[in-house]
Amino acid sequence: MYSLKLVTFVVLSSIPYFCYGAKREDFDLQKMFEDMGEEGNKMRDECFTENEMSLADLHDYDKAEDIPEKELCFYKCFFQKSYVVDKDGKVIIESIKAIEEVKDLEESDRETFTNCLKEIKPVLECKDMVEFEKCFDQILM
Predict the structure, then answer these.
(1) b/e code 65-93 from CB counts within 10 Å (16+ = b)
(2) Structural domain boundaries in the chain
(3) 3-state SS track over the chain
(4) How many angstroms separate the CA atoms of 52 and 90, rounded?
(5) Cα(43)–Cα(77) distance, rounded to whole angstroms?
(6) Are 116 and 135 a contacting pair, CB within 8 Å?
(7) What was the pLDDT predicted at 108?
(8) What is the pTM of this model?
(9) Cα 124 to Cα 73: distance, rounded to the nearest angstrom
(10) pLDDT tens readout for residues 70-91
(11) CATH architecture of residue range(s) 2-140
(12) Pick from 98, 91, 80, 86: nearest CA to 136
């Protein structure tokens, strides 16, 4: 489960940076998802299949609001499969707090991050991922 938590945190913390926080080429975001280890690759591929996507369909954007629904659906799927969002769309704060890299955040950043996640509405639709991702901005940008 630790490898899953590490993969999840890397993905979670990198999405705001690659998708809308910095001017990067699509290749950088795609590279991040290219090899995530056996467990991560399996989840990634399942979510690509469910959303009729491939690695080449992931792109970077200037703002979270610009991310197309299809890509938001991929992220929603991935976070559900990695046990960060449950089947009812609730962010599982305890799963996030258990990730070593989250534990390593400064206390104020960790608190800001988890408080933000507690305040977002359930991730029931793909577009709900925009608010989810904005929580990462608060600590990463």
Answers:
(1) eebeeebbbbbbbbbbbbbbbeeebebbe
(2) 2-140
(3) CHHHHHHHHHHHHHHHHHHHHCCCCHHHHHHHHHCCHHHHHHHHHHHHHHCCCCHHHCCCCCCHHHCCHHHHHHHHHHHHHCCCECCCCCECHHHHHCCHHHHCCCHHHHHHHHHHHHHCCCCCCHHHHHHHHHHHHHHHC
(4) 25
(5) 9
(6) yes
(7) 92
(8) 0.74
(9) 10
(10) 999 999 999 899 888 998 999 9
(11) Orthogonal Bundle (1.10)
(12) 91
Q: What are phi and psi of 91, to 5 degrees?
A: -70, 130
Say how far apart CA 7 and CA 99 lie, in whole Å: 10
* Residue 64 structure tokens: 């979270």
Alpha-carbon span 99 to 70, nearest angstrom: 27
75, two tokens: 């992220």
